[in-house]
């Protein structure tokens, strides 16, 4: 099993899940600084030109999309306890993960870091960044107000949703230099103390 990643990209969440599982895997760096995601070698792996992608060896094309990869890892490694077993708990984990990967990631962060993906007109970029920052505040506020867990996103304990929440928290705090509301801040700090997170960040050359 091989994870294609870029340092500090959303792939770090999948990297954390692989560290939680604790089985051997390989890492392959996709150098986005040189646009390697669009080069023929990586397009042959993932025609979408995005990380994460998980190479499953003989089991067909690499698996793509954060939520799908996380669901697969949780289902194939039940002993790691990454997904609640009861149907509603499972749906809650997917609900939180989907909100983060489908809404928070693109509309608060991709729009903020890559405004050129939202408008070809350079004069529109400051407005796109401003909107993205307002979105980040709104989304984190919503997550804070609807927080149902204690330390982790779900009341039942650590799950794939925590690894998803972590990568957007990480960007907000470490990349943008913003603060999180109190419950999310406590979550972010608890994640930073987790050995799997420390190992993943260290392996990506991003230790705090
Ligand atoms: N829908 C995809 C989005 C993945 C994504 O946007 N990855 C970013 C890194 S955080 C990427 O590879 N960007 C490269 C690019 O847009 O050129 C998922 O959830 O996995």
CATH architecture descriptor of the largest domain: Up-down Bundle
Reading the helices and strands in chain order gives: EHEHEEHHHHHH
Number of self-contained structural domains: 2
The N- to C-terminal Cα distance equals 27 Å
Looking at the structure, the CATH topology of the largest domain is Glutathione S-transferase Yfyf (Class Pi), Chain A, domain 2
Order of strands, main sheet, comes to 2-1-3-4
Overall 3D form? globular
Helix content: 40-55%
Main sheet record = 4 strands, mixed
Number of strand segments: 4
In short:
With 208 residues, the chain is α+β, with helices and mostly antiparallel strands. It has helices at residues 11-21, 40-45, 66-76, 87-113, 125-145, 160-175, 182-193, 195-203, and strands at residues 2-5, 26-29, 53-55, 63-64. The structure holds glutathione.
What does this 3D model show about the protein?
By secondary structure, the protein is α+β, with helices and mostly antiparallel strands. It has two domains: 80 residues, Glutaredoxin; 108 residues, Glutathione S-transferase Yfyf (Class Pi), Chain A, domain 2. Helix content is 54%, strand content 6%. The chain has eight helices and four strands, in the order E-H-E-H-E-E-H-H-H-H-H-H. A four-stranded mixed beta sheet has the order 2-1-3-4, covered by helices on one side. Strand 3 and strand 4 form a beta hairpin. The longest helix is centred in the middle third of the chain and has 27 residues. The mean pLDDT is 96. The site of glutathione (GSH) has 12 residues, from helix 4. Glutathione (GSH) binds next to helix 4.
